[in-house]
Structure formats: structure tokens, C-alpha cells
Amino acid sequence: GGDILIDNDGIFFSEDPDSLRTTGIGSITLNQWEGGSIQNAVDAVENTGTGLNTINVGPGTFAESVTVYEDNFLLKGNNFGINPNTQVRNTETLIQPSTGFDGTAFGFLLTGNNITVDGFSMDTEGAGVAMSGGSGYSVLNNIITTYDAVDALDAGIQGTDASDVTVQYNKIDVVGNDGMNFSGGGNLTIWDNTVNSTQTAGVYLTGVNASSIINNDVNNTGTGGFGGGDGISVNSGTGLHFISSNHIGTLGAANNIQGNGITIHDTAAAIVIDNVIANATGNGVFVDPSPNVS
């Protein structure tokens, strides 16, 4: 199949789904501007091959939740490649769906494989980015705020049986549940993020097969009074979990980590090294029971 480029100055709109078609190694690239729908752009793509599908989204507010259910997508916000923790940002591409039942008003739901979400801002009732069942996900350079603390569906970034996931250079601030919550799946790379002011834990993993959690800043956890306010918590893990060079509780006041700095519970193997932990109401590092932790 050939390559398709929709390069216009206005709003892309397709009346019918699957109207942009290619196959083989063909790629599809289109631009979407404020006033249109990112979901409409996703729905228009029908690529039965292995080529990359790129949607460039301009600045402004998009009042919608976006589900990406096919493979090989790159969604680029107006701050693609710009780290919100260290760099000056351009005008944001804001994903701000209408309020709904708990967990339903998410920002992005990724169910295909090999999908990247990079350079957006999200203000949502459900998860900012949720991944379910697939592999090859990258969540990069986003600003995420969620609210309505009831369950893990309100986590800033959520994964359910998601594998080969990279979460890097995100700013997760004032979140209705965990900053990040992963259940099942594995091979997670969680690097260089800031997580601040979460109702429960900063980073919470359960039943995950192997992770690398490095150089994250986590502060002000457990603000909702629901318990479970650990900075980083790994539970019932298999494989090796490597936790290093994180700063937990160092930027907040006394007792700003409402739990342990790091918890390793019922996990096969973990290396915990060179982390800086302060102002936790519990232990700095709590291990129970996990036979191979160093």
C-alpha cells in the first residue's frame, strides 16, 4: 500500500469510518485542529499493514474521550517531545471530556498495540491514559490531572494486562486515585516522571511481571485519607523489579507521604537502591514477605 498524507489548514472530518485505507508498509498521516474530533480522525484510519498511523493534533480544547483500538498509532499533541517537568511548553492540546460515571470520562483508552501518546494535557474524571490488554505502549511528555477518587479507574495512568510499556517525562498532578496504577501485564519502564498530590499511592503495581522504576519524583501521596498512600508500592510481582534513584517525599512538608516510601509485598525479586526518601509516615522501605530483595 501507499502512503497517505492529509495536510490541510482546517478541521479534518470523515463522514464514514475507515475512509483512509492502506496496507503493507503504507503509512497514514493527518492533522486535526480544534473544532474537530480526534476520535473521528482515529476512526477514519484503516491500515491493515504494518505502517505507522500519525495524528498531529493542534492546540486547543477537545471535549472528548479517545479510544485507539487499532495498531501502530502515534498521537502527537502540540507539545510533542517537550518534557513538562524541565522545558517551557507551547499552548496545550487539552483533552477535557464531559463528566460522567466514575472512570468513564477518560482521556485516552488504548486497546490496540504499538501506540504512543505524546505531548498532551488531560483534565479528566477517569484515567488520563488507560491501557488494556495490548503491548508496545509509550506515554510521554503529558500533563495529567484526574479527580473523583473512588477506584483505580481514576488513576493518572492506568494499565490492565498491558505489557512492554514506557511511561516517561510525564507530570501527574492532583490525581483522584493513584498517580499510576498497573495490574497484570509486565515489562514496565517508568522513568523521569513527577507525581504530586495523589489521593492514594504515587505508583502502585500489582501482579506485574518485571518493572524498572527510575528517577521519578513522588510527593504528597495519600491526600484523600483512604489509606494506601505509599510513594511506590509493588505487590504480588513476578520477575525482577528494579527501583532506583527515585526522590520520594523530598519536596513536601513533614508527613507528606501517607504511608511507606517504598513497599515491596509478596514479590519474587526486587532491587531497591539509591532512592532518597523523606517525610513518610511509615517506613522508608518496607518489605513483607519477599524472599529476594536487595
Note the topology.
Elements: E1 4-6, E2 20-22, E3 28-32, H1 38-44, E4 45-47, E5 53-57, E6 60-62, E7 66-68, E8 73-76, E9 93-95, E10 108-110, E11 115-118, E12 121-124, E13 129-132, E14 135-140, E15 143-146, E16 157-160, E17 163-168, E18 171-175, E19 180-183, E20 186-191, E21 194-198, E22 203-206, E23 209-214, E24 217-219, E25 232-235, E26 238-244, E27 247-248, E28 262-265, E29 269-273, E30 276-277, E31 285-288, E32 292-293
Parallel strand pairs: 1-3, 2-4, 3-5, 5-8, 6-9, 7-10, 8-11, 9-12, 10-13, 11-14, 12-15, 13-16, 14-17, 15-18, 16-19, 17-20, 18-21, 19-22, 20-23, 21-24, 22-25, 23-26, 24-27, 25-28, 26-29, 27-30, 28-31, 29-32
Give the number of DSSP strands. Answer: 32
Please report the number of helical segments: 1
Overall mean confidence score, pLDDT: 92
Q: What summary fits the major beta sheet?
A: 12 strands, parallel
Shape summary: globular
> What is the strand arrangement across the widest sheet?
1-3-5-8-11-14-17-20-23-26-29-32
Please give the alpha-carbon distance between the first and last residues. Answer: 52 Å
What is the CA-atom radius of gyration, in angstroms? 19 Å
Q: In percent, how much strand structure appears in the residues? A: 35-45%
> What class do helices, strands and sheet pairing give?
mainly beta
Low-pLDDT regions: none
Helix percent reads: under 10%
